[in-house]
C-alpha cells in the first residue's frame, strides 16, 4: 500500500494529481493510510456515488470512538452528518422545514445588497473584501443576528473546520459558539421573527420538536459547514475564471450561462479532496473490490469530479458543460442542505463582479498566490486584483 491521505502534493489550483493519477493507474478503489488507520479511497464517480447513497456505508458508524475522523467537530453524534436512516431523515426534515427554499429565496435581495456594498469599496483583495465577509453576513441575515456578530462567527467557524486542533481548542470554540447561539435562541423565543432560528424553534412533527441540544448542535454545524466552503468556493471560482480568460469572456457576454457556470466551477476547482468518511455496516462490494464489515471508506470528490468516464475531457473548463451533476456538494441523503443558498451567493457574487469589473485581472503573478494549510479545503490566503 503506497497511497496516503491527506494527499501530499503542494496546494494550488492545478496541483492535486495524486487522486487522478491513482484513479487512472490503480483503479476506482484503493487502500491508503490515514494516520494510523487503513482507509479505502473511493476515487471514481460511480464508487463515490455508491458510498454516498448506499446505506451500508454509514456516517453513524464512522463517528463512533476510534472511527476515521477528518474534521473533529463533525463527529458530534447530535448533528445531521453523524446520523443515518430514520433518525437522520427525521432530523433533516425538521431542519429543512426551517431552512426552506422559500426562506432562501427571500434572502436574494439581501445577498445582492451585501455584494453591492462590498464591491462599492473596490476591494483590491477579493478574498478579504468579498469572499470572506459575504457568507457570514448572509448567515447573520439567515439567523436574524446583527452584522456585528459576523467577525465572531467567522473566528469560531474557522476553528471548527480546522483539520488539526487540540481537544481544548475544539471545546473552547464550541463553548463560545454554543453560548452565542443559546442566547440567540432565547431572544427569538421571546421576540419571534421570520428567520431561521424562529422557524427551527417552531418546527415540529408527530414526534415533537428538536431538543435544545439538538437544535444548538445543528445550528452550529450549519454555520461551520456553510462558511469555509462558501468563502473558498467563491475565491477558487474567481481565480479559475481569471486563469481562463476566454471562458470568463464567454460568461461576461452571456450571463445566462451562470447556472451551468456555477456547477462547472464547483466541479473544476476541487474545493475539497474528500467529503466525510464512512464505515461499512456489513461486507460490501465497491466497484469490484470486496470490503469487509467495519472498513473505513473516504469518498474522494476531487477525482470523481474529473472522472473521464463521466466528464469528457475532464481537465477542460467548459462553463456550458451539460451532463452529470458534479459531486462537490455530495449526493443522496446527506446532499448539502445549504446548496441552494451557496449557489445563490456564488451566482450573485460572480455575476456582480464580472458586470462591475469586466476588465478584472490578477494584480500579482499567479506563483505568488498562497493557500492556507490548516484547513481541509483549498483556501486562498488572498486574491489581489486590478481592473
Ligand atoms: C460551496 C459551498 C458548499 C459546499 C461545496 C458544500 C459541500 C457539502 C458536501 C460535500 C456535503 C455532503 C457531506 C457528506 O455527505 O459527506 C454537504 C453537506 C451539508 N452542507 Fe454543505 N456545502 C456548501 C455550503 C453549505 C452552506 C452554505 C450550508 C448552510 C448554511 C451547508 C450546510 C450543509 C449541511 C447542514 C450538510 C449536511 C446535510 C446532511 O448530513 O444531511 N453547506 N455540504
From TrEMBL:
<dbReference type="Pfam" id="PF00067">
    <property type="entry name" value="p450"/>
</dbReference>
<protein>
    <submittedName>
        <fullName>Cytochrome P450</fullName>
    </submittedName>
</protein>
<dbReference type="InterPro" id="IPR002397">
    <property type="entry name" value="Cyt_P450_B"/>
</dbReference>
<comment type="similarity">
    <text>Belongs to the cytochrome P450 family.</text>
</comment>
<dbReference type="InterPro" id="IPR001128">
    <property type="entry name" value="Cyt_P450"/>
</dbReference>
<dbReference type="InterPro" id="IPR036396">
    <property type="entry name" value="Cyt_P450_sf"/>
</dbReference>
Amino acid at each position: 500500500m503506497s497511497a496516503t491521505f491527506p494527499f501530499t502534493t503542494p496546494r494550488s489550483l492545478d496541483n492535486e494529481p495524486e487522486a487522478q493519477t491513482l484513479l487512472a493507474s490503480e483503479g476506482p478503489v484503493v487502500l491508503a493510510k490515514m494516520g494510523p488507520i487503513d482507509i479505502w479511497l473511493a476515487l471514481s464517480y460511480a464508487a463515490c456515488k455508491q458510498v454516498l447513497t448506499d446505506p451500508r456505508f454509514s456516517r453513524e458508524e464512522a463517528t463512533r470512538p476510534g472511527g476515521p475522523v477528518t474534521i473533529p467537530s463533525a463527529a458530534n453524534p447530535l448533528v445531521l452528518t453523524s446520523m443515518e436512516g430514520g433518525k437522520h431523515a427525521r432530523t433533516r426534515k425538521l431542519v429543512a422545514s426551517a431552512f426552506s427554499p422559500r426562506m432562501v429565496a427571500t434572502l436574494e435581495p439581501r445577498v445582492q445588497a451585501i455584494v453591492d456594498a462590498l464591491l462599492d469599496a473596490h476591494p483590491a483583495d477579493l478574498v478579504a473584501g468579498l469572499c470572506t465577509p459575504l457568507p457570514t453576513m448572509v448567515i447573520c441575515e439567515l439567523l436574524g443576528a446583527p452584522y456585528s456578530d459576523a467577525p465572531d462567527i467567522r473566528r469560531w467557524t474557522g476553528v471548527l473546520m480546522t483539520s488539526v486542533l487540540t481537544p481544548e481548542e475544539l471545546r473552547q470554540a464550541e463553548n463560545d459558539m454554543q453560548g452565542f447561539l443559546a442566547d440567540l435562541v432565547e431572544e427569538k423565543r421571546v421576540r419571534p421573527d421570520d428567520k431561521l432560528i424562529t422557524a427551527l424553534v417552531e418546527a415540529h412533527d408527530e414526534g415533537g420538536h428538536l431538543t435544545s441540544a439538538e437544535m444548538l448542535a445543528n445550528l452550529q454545524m450549519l454555520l461551520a459547514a456553510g462558511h469555509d466552503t462558501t468563502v473558498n468556493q467563491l475565491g477558487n471560482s474567481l481565480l479559475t475564471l481569471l486563469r481562463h480568460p476566454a471562458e470568463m469572456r464567454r460568461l461576461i457576454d452571456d450571463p445566462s450561462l451562470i447556472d451551468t457556470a456555477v456547477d462547472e466551477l464547483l466541479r473544476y476547482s476541487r474545493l475539497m479532496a474528500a467529503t466525510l468518511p464512512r464505515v461499512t455496516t456489513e461486507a460490501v462490494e465497491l466497484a469490484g473490490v470486496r470490503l469487509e464489515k467495519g472498513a473505513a471508506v473516504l469518498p474522494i470528490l476531487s477525482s470523481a469530479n474529473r472522472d473521464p468516464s463521466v466528464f469528457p475531457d475532464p481537465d477542460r473548463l467548459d462553463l456550458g458543460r451539460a451532463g452529470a451533476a458534479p459531486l462537490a456538494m455530495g449526493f443522496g441523503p446527506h446532499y448539502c442542505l445549504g446548496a441552494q443558498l451557496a449557489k445563490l451567493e456564488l451566482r450573485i457574487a460572480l455575476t456582480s463582479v464580472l458586470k462591475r469589473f469586466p476588465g478584472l485581472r490578477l494584480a500579482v503573478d499567479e506563483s505568488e498566490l498562497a493557500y492556507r494549510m490548516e484547513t481541509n479545503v483549498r483556501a486562498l490566503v488572498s486574491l489581489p486584483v486590478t481592473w
